[in-house]
Structure formats: structure tokens, C-alpha cells
Design a protein that fits this description.
Largest interface: A-B, 67 and 57 residues
Structural class of chain A: alpha/beta
Shape of chain C: globular
Helix content of chain A: 25-40%
Shape of chain A: globular
Chains: A alpha/beta, B alpha+beta, C alpha/beta
Strand order of the largest sheet of chain A: 1-9-8-5-4-2-3
Order of helices and strands of chain A: HEHEHEEEHHEEEEEEEH
Radius of gyration of chain C: 18 Å
Oligomer: heterotrimer
Order of helices and strands of chain C: EEEHEEHEHHHHEHEHEEHH
Radius of gyration of chain A: 19 Å
Distance between the termini of chain C: 34 Å
Number of strands of chain C: 10
Number of strands of chain A: 12
Number of helices of chain C: 10
Number of helices of chain A: 6
Chain lengths: 279, 351, 259
Amino acid sequence: MSFPVIEYNHAYLDEQTKRVIRRALLKGVAIPGFQVPFASREVPMPRGWGTGGVQVTASVIGDGDVLKVIDQGADDTTNAVSIRQFFEKVAGVATTTSTEDATVIQTRHRIPETPLAEGQIMVYQVPIPEPLRFLEPRETETRRMHALEDYGLIYVKLYEDIAKYGHIATSYAYPVLVNGRYLMDPSPTPSFDNPKLHRSPALHLYGAGREKRIYAVPPYTHVESLGFEDHPFEPQRFTQPCELCGSTGVYMDEVIVDDHGGAIYVCSDTDHCERMAAL
Amino acid sequence: MYVAVKGGEKAIANAHSLLAKRGRGSEDTPELDAVQVRDQLGMLVSRVMAEGSLYDPDLAARAIVQAQGDALEAVTLVRTYRTTLPRFGTSLPIDTAGLPSERRISATFKDLPGGQQLGATFDYTHRLLADRKPEAVPTDAGEPRPMPRVTDLMGAGALVEPDSVSGDTDPEPADLTRDPTVFPMTRAERLQALARGDEGFLLGLGYSTQRGYGRTHPFAGEVRVGEVEVEFVPPELGFAVAIGRIEVTECQMVNQFTGSSSAPAQFTRGYGLVFGRSERKAMSMSLIDRSLRSGELGERITAPAQDEEFVISHADNVEATGFVEHLKLPHYVDFQAELALVRKLREEFGA
Amino acid sequence: MIGNEEPLLSVTGAGHRYGDRFGCRDVSFELWPGEVLAVVGESGSGKSTLLGMLARRLTTDEGSIRYRRDRELTELSDLTEREVRTLWRSEWGFVHQNPADGLRMHVSAGGNVGEPLMATGWRHYGRIRAKAAEWLERVEIPVDRIDDDPTTFSGGMRQRLQIARNLVVSPRLVFMDEPTSGLDVSVQARLLDLIRSLVADLGLSVVIVTHDLAVARLISHRTLVMKDGAVIESGLTDRVLDDPQAAYTQLLVSSILQG
């Protein structure tokens, strides 16, 4: 039995597929926050492990680009390593761990602490693109709600949280209203990261491979986290400084260090941490 | 003094080596040959081709070996390979009555033109673990008799609803692997999703319809296993050319009849078609095809097997296992956020 | 009745078909602000079909149904889905026979009443909650139940909650589908009293479908009697019930007196 030799196209996807994805991306950019259906392809990692992000990156990346890949804010976590190696192999692209030097940053669950600049592209891995999904499981119904701007249901959820807990009880994947029109799920980044989206100079692209949806927030778009006038959105705060570099005002990982559950806090963004520690 | 965790790349490389070692097993035993798998584990190969949506027994066999026998891993390998293949056209619809079937049975009639042909089946074996001893069976070739489809025979008298709406040629059906999935779906799109859907999931759902969760009164009109010719019309030639043969399993279920004051009673249908030898899948598929037509046939929708969004969204096992298993990926950032929230709420509760 | 030049709802020869059979046919009437119209009949009379047509759940296959939007009578079949959705959010209400169909059973009472407000742009939690509490009081639900789920409410209380949810945005027209059936007689009476006083306070128009003439008597100004999809008698409720003209109406009326 002989096995045919496969010639992979640059960045794995064939040009026709890239074209299809780019068209979806353009539509997404033209209608900020709107979920564009696209025919998601299988790529060599499992669904749920970043296939949407990978397809978006594969469609926008070119020879001059420098790619950074992070998961949970770190370059060295297994998912980030696996995806970075994939692109090194199929796109021959330069890679980096430095946020400042990257032109394309694919991320899972965090936005870097280093402020983004014009010309940079963030690509988010999205598990569940529909912000109303857990309130209304039917896709046909949520589509209608978006079309008719029928968003009462999400406010009911926030109302119920306050009635029950005294606070809005969503800490990640916190829903936002984009450009004053579409309700969007910013992917499971902690709510701490939401303010970074508002009028950001970078382009933010979201890919949900398994759910087959793409959406986008173009640069300098108004992005507002939902809340009530008397219970406004409040991002989480950490009071502790980073054990390694001393930074404050950044998102922290809690690390258990002894048998009694004693913990220390370190920066989740490893690039930021290394840079600060070097100063 | 805490030192940040590093070494993801090295850890992955080591994991790959360990995996390869596990996959090889004992060096004393001969390495598994994909050809043996192709020839002697045909049922598994069929499953991987069907759910991988690619007819290539060699490739499926290779995938099974590389996946160390994990059917879904093998399906994933086949699917990602399929993505790299260019699409140069659509075949003509295959004619499952065109070539004599190796196996054809019908539960609806005792005898019928072409007879009941048992073929190769586990159905009548006694399920006892035994040594495999190929018995020499005198194969009486005989004249291959024509085997008209049961549903065509019944359809001639309009006892069963026709195959498709008259006049509907549907030359280029939608392709889920090329066009985005949007509900509600056409029957053709649903059938495609079911054909590549997980056998176990569809089996469970089909079973549920037999136990009262959306009853469809099924009878197995026909189950066929055999080879069919695949034909394609190259644009340069303008006429059909046979490009090969594939083995398929087909199931035609005959289901609950409908009728009204304006239309006489007629049996309805459920359809299943799968690559290779896969009766369980073809039958489950036909049960679900029929139950998803409840809305179209004006029946009450009460059960999960009748809910298109539910069934189709969860039938793809590559997607399902991807998302279920992705829970193994680090989620500590989001967990940190939840932890902070719970701590805060507990503080305020005590106050 | 408040003096207005044009009716709120103007129905002319309306009918809905199920296949080749008409569920209801050739229905004509006008509804004025502040008026309660009862549509009575036995099951199969077509009254639910009529309600379905008026509430845009069923198509108008014959005739016309016009509603006064922004002071002009508009043909409802001409409206887009978005326009109909807007009507439901701010001008119309629908009280279902089974309160579970008109409530979110696993959302608190406060959330249920607050939702229409949130859907129309209210963004102050304190004010939403206060308005919800006000309405709970108005429909005689103890305010300390504001955070409880309707699953913990009795049938009568659920129905009152459904009414509060419908009225909180001050609609002009409310459709009611057998709102009292399935409730105890005393609970029914209390509910009808409540509806009557709310109608009077708010100047609502109501179309209420019922098989129970006593319900019609208690709260409606005018009554349509339906049988086999057609309106066989209509007029002021007191007149129709005290002096029925059609043989069928006479039969219906006499059967209450005996029963």
C-alpha cells in the first residue's frame, strides 16, 4: 500500500478556503459584533482546541508577519506551543513571545497587558460565540433576537444575579454591546480584560471553528460591557503584586505553593512579567 | 523562591515519544500492518470511512493503526486529510439497485423478487468467543437475480410516499463541508449530517424513538449491502464515465402512514445510506431521518430525536469529542475569575 | 368609552383557513379604547382561531384586520416582523390560558415583571425592581414574593403575575385566552374583579375569549357569539345574554341557568 504525498499550501488551508474565510471576516468587520456563519474546515487539531482561531490566523497571515500565540496569557502553555509549532511548520512564519514585536497574536482566554497598537491583529479562539446561548439554546431564536435587537433576556439574567447575589455574577465571557448595536461574547477572557476592547487601536477577530461563526471588532469601536446604571460593570481587581516582577494592576494566576493551600500570585501574561522583571 | 513554570515544548515532545512507544507495544511482536487492518477489520474500516466522510479503505486502515485503535481519533485523521483534497465535481446519484447486492433482506415481506439474500452477517451467529476457523463453504454462485427495491415495488401502487417531490432534480445539493451550517436545514443537508454522524449517538436516539420518545412505527423495508458504480460527467466529455465502485449499506424504513380527507393513506419513509458495511448505522440513520421529518408530516414534536437543532448539533463526533476533551486544556485564568467572585460573595454573605 | 373618531381595531370579513376548511370566517367588528369584547362559544366554534388571527399568530387569509398605530388604521398583514415585534413590546399584551406559557417559570417574579421594561430600555435596577414591586402589589401578590419563582406560586397567583407582566408597559390592547379556566370559582371571581378594575383604571381595550358566559357577563361591554366558525350574534353583553335573538345563543344562555 503506498501513501500519497501531500503538498500543503502555505498556512495549510487552500486558497479557496482562505478566500471564503476572508469574505466572512470582511463581513464581520463591516458589521461589528455580528456573527457571520462560515464553512469551518477541519484542521489538524481537535475541535474545541482552537480550530476557529487557527483558520482565521491562517487566512490573514503572510510572509512579513510575526506571530505570537498565547494561552491563558502564557506563550509556553501546551496549547499555545502546539499552535505556534503548527504555523512555524506550515507557514514558515517568524514567531515571537514579545507582544510589542508581534503583528498577529492568536490568543486563548486573555488579552495581553501590553497595550496593543494600530496595525496589530488579535485572533481569539472562541468556544461558544452566542452570548445568549445559555439563556436560549435554539439558534433560530437567537438569530431572530439579534436581528430584532431583542436583548431583554440578557438584562433579565443580570437582574436575577443582582436579586440573588447582590452583584452581577459573570466573571468571564462577560457580554458586551458593540458599536451600540450587536450583543457579543468577547470569548472567555476574564471580565478584567473587557475594558481593553473599547476603542482599541488594534483589529480584533474572533473564530469559532466548531460552531462555525466568525465575528470582529474593528479598530476604535465603541465596546460597552453590560450593566445597570446603579449596578454598572466592574472589572475584577487584584490587590496583590506579582511575586516575580512586582507588577500591580494586572491579571494574576494563583499558584498553590504548599500542602496547606498557601498561595502566591504571579502575572498571567508571561511576556509582561519577564519584561518587568528585567527592569 | 517560586520559579515560573516553563518547558511546554519539551513536555510535548516527550509526550509524543511516550505515545509512539505505547502505540508500538512490545518490540517482540510484529508491527501491525495496515493492509491486515483493511482486510480483516473491515467493520471498523467502514465506520472510519463513513464518519470521516471519505471512501478510502487504505487510508482508513492507516488512520486506525496510527490512532492505536481509537475510532474517533482515526476519523479525525481522515477528516483533516479530506480537508486538503481539492473538489473537482459531484458524481451522479448512485443507483443502489444497479448492481446485485451481496446482501439484501426485507422484513416487510416473506418473499420478494430477488429473494432474501443473507450475505455475510453476524445476525445468526451465536455470540460465543471462539477460535476463528474459516470453514470451507461451497459457494453456489448461481445466476445473479435482479433485486428491485421493495420501496419501488410498493411505490408503484403509491402505497408508500415517493422518493422525492416530483420535479425536484436537486442537481447540486448543499454541502455542509463547504457551506455554513444554518438552521432550519433541508432534508438533504440533514441526511448528509447524519451520514457522517456518530454511530453511537444515532443508535441511542433511534432506540429512543422505538421506546416511545417520538414513535414512528418503523418496518425494515429493505437493508442492502453491496457495491455500486460511481459515475461522473467530466465537463470536457459531456457524458457519464464510471470512475470506480464503492461498497455501501442502504436502509429503507417504511414508517407510520399518513392520510387525510383529501389524500389517501400512504406509508412514509426513513432513509439511511453509509459507506462500507454498516447496517446498525444505516438503520439508526433511517430512524432519525424519519423522526426529523415529524414537522413536515404534521406530527407533534415531543421528543429529542425529533428536534433538528438538538440532533444535528450534537451528531458530529469530531466536534463533540473536541469540545468535551478540550476541558483538559488549561482553564485556570477563567477559574481564577470565578474563584475571586465566589470569595467575594462569601465575604459579603458573612458580613 | 372615551370619545375617539376611530376605533382601535377594525375587523372586516376576516377569516383563517386550515387547509381547505375555514377555522373562522366573515368576522367583522370594531373595538374602541377602553372597551372589553368577549368572544364566546364552545370548543370548535372558531373563537381561538379568531384570537390567533388578531394576535398575528395566524394569517389573515380573507378580509382585513386594521389596528390604529400612531393615529392611523394600518392593515396588520402589511407589517414587517420587526414592526409586529415592536407592537408586542409596547402596545399589546397576551394573557395565556396556562400561565406557564406566558411566564418564564424559572425567573423570579420581579424578573418576569421587569423583563418588558428591560426590553424597552430600562437600565436602572432599583427602578425596575420598584416598578415590579408596585405591580405585584397592584395584582395583589405579596411583595415579599418578588424574588420567588412562579413555580412556587398557586395557579391564581401565576395568572395574576402574568397579568402584571403584560400590563407593566401600559399596553393599549390586551388579548386574553380563557384566563380563568382551570381556576377555582372563588379565585376566578377575584381575578375577574382585578381585570375589571385594571381595565377601568388604565383605559385598556381587551379581547377576551371564553366558553363561560358568566365571565363575559362580569367583565365585557360587548359580546360576539361564535359557532362553527361564524359569528351568529353580537351586541352589548347585557342585551345578548338577557335577550338572545339567535336560537343557539338562547340555548347557550338557558344551559347556564339550568347548569
